Fold this sequence. Notes:
two-stranded antiparallel sheet, alpha+beta, YefM-like fold, 3-stranded mixed sheet, single chain, 25% helix
Amino acid sequence: MAVQVNIAEAKAQLPSLLDQALAGEEVVIARAGKPLARLSPVESMTQRRPGAWRALRIPNDALFEPIDPDELDAAEIKHTDEFGITVSRFNEPMPYCGGSSMLLRSR
């Protein structure tokens, strides 16, 4: 026999509804009395086959090597101006966009 529940009931009773579905009972989730989804057990779990990156091997020592300071600055979006001062791009003021209504600032 099929059990039909609305979305709110399904949200509140999901663990018990999953148990019912695993026991072989049909569980239908409905909105305004119209069936939307059916809970059913997965037939069998299959092992995932390796994909495109299966041959990728990263040597352990590559993960622990110190990073070049220039590469670190590039990763942190920093730049050095003509006076040798390093500034983060995240801390720069926002550019003027033309009118106070166009100026966007995060609060």
